[in-house]
Amino acid sequence: MTLKQVRKTILILTLVLLAGFGGFWWGERRAKKIPLQLNIVEPKEVDLSLFWDVWQRLEGDYLDKSALDQEKMVYGAIKGITQSLGDPYTVFLEPGENKRAKEDLDGSFGGVGIQLGYKDRRLAVIAPLKGTPAEKAGVKAGDLILRIVDEQKEVDQETTGISLPEAVNLIRGPKGQPVTLTLFSEGEEKPREVEIVRGTIIVPSVEVEFINAKDAKIAHLKLMKFGERTSREWEEAVGEINATDCAGVILDLRNNPGGYLNGAVFIASEFLKSGVVVKQEGKRETKTYSVNRRGKLLDYPLSILVNKGSASASEIVAGALRDRGRAKTVGERTFGKGTVQEAQDLSGGAGLHITTARWLLPSGAWIGEEGIEPDYVVELDEEREGDEQLEKAIEVLLE
């Protein structure tokens, strides 16, 4: 690739990023390719002289010529644009990273079973997935991830300033290979190192079990994520509930990291007859998403379980059902992921996630940062047998 071709490539990608056209609201089914025939910023309005000065100095003077990979330099420049915004959820994804970002909601993959996010701009565990190597190794929701070490991949990296796609790429790997994470939990005096042997991670969306309590049968409906398979699995679980003589439903959103927005509206519509589910407050307009179908669980008494691993779409559902007076919430304060990312596919398989809006509950409250304080706060005692949060949810339901 000649310097002229590199300049043209960077200029096109830079202007596409600045324009921010195309794509979809995070939560729709598919991203759209970004068209290049757009009314974008005129090149003369963007002063790239300093950029090219640095580029030419590196090509002319840098000692290790083999390190001057022009494709990596282009990707690095674009990543610098997104990182300059100071928003960890607005990221540029190289083709491999973009592919892996889609796997979370679509199927199985080799990894440790951790849903990642940020707390105070630091890489954190939203939740370990049930039955995965991470959970078995003692990883907890809310743990900060300070360092990632993988000897086989020759990785030893602190996580300051790391993007989610980069973190996912470092933590994932072939089944049977170990990765060591340095973790820090609130309340602990010092960080701890945890070695986790990767496995094949298959993430179900929905599980239902029936609990007998005070001569009543209650459906414990666990929703683990809002993904590609959620609607089908949800419908099957709802069918089981309606075929059983139940006194009520406990919707368990603990350690649910979220996912598709339309999935959140779909689930909330199962319990609400009408009205607003969530609003998206964007730069130019506010969109309202309301109940969009007739639910099959409208008349069941309902309580909701949440914890600090409940994030994003799960916070929308819990917040909407609470605000609308449909259910009481039980557990711990939620994660606080209150922004919307528009996922765009770029040429060559690359991708771009842009924060374009924030979610507002029907009450007008913002989910971000503070999360949702449950109606009944119940902290889990790890030394105690049983599930105090579930027990409290049953008590609230039967009241």
Count of all domains: 3
**Shape type:** globular
> How large is the count of helical segments?
10
Number of strands: 19
Work out the radius of gyration. Answer: 23 Å
Oligomeric organization of the protein chains: single chain
CATH evolutionary superfamily of the largest domain: 2-enoyl-CoA Hydratase, Chain A, domain 1
Characterization of the model:
The protein is built from 10 helices and 19 strands. By secondary structure, it is an alpha+beta fold. It has 3 domains: 3-90, no CATH class; 108-202, Pdz3 Domain; 206-398, 2-enoyl-CoA Hydratase, Chain A, domain 1 (Alpha-Beta Complex), CATH 3.90.226. Strand 15, helix 9 and strand 16 form a beta-alpha-beta unit. Mean pLDDT is 85; it is low at 8-41.
SSE layout:
Layout: H1 3-19, H2 49-61, H3 70-83, E1 91-93, H4 95-106, E2 108-111, E3 114-119, E4 122-128, H5 133-136, E5 144-150, E6 155-158, H6 164-171, E7 178-184, E8 192-197, E9 199-202, E10 206-213, E11 216-223, H7 230-242, E12 248-252, H8 261-268, E13 276-282, E14 286-290, E15 302-306, H9 313-323, E16 328-331, E17 339-345, E18 351-360, E19 376-377, H10 388-398
Parallel strand pairs: 11-12, 12-15, 15-16, 16-19
Antiparallel strand pairs: 1-18, 2-9, 3-4, 5-6, 5-7, 7-8, 10-11, 13-14, 13-18, 17-18
Helix pairs in contact: 1-3, 4-6, 8-9
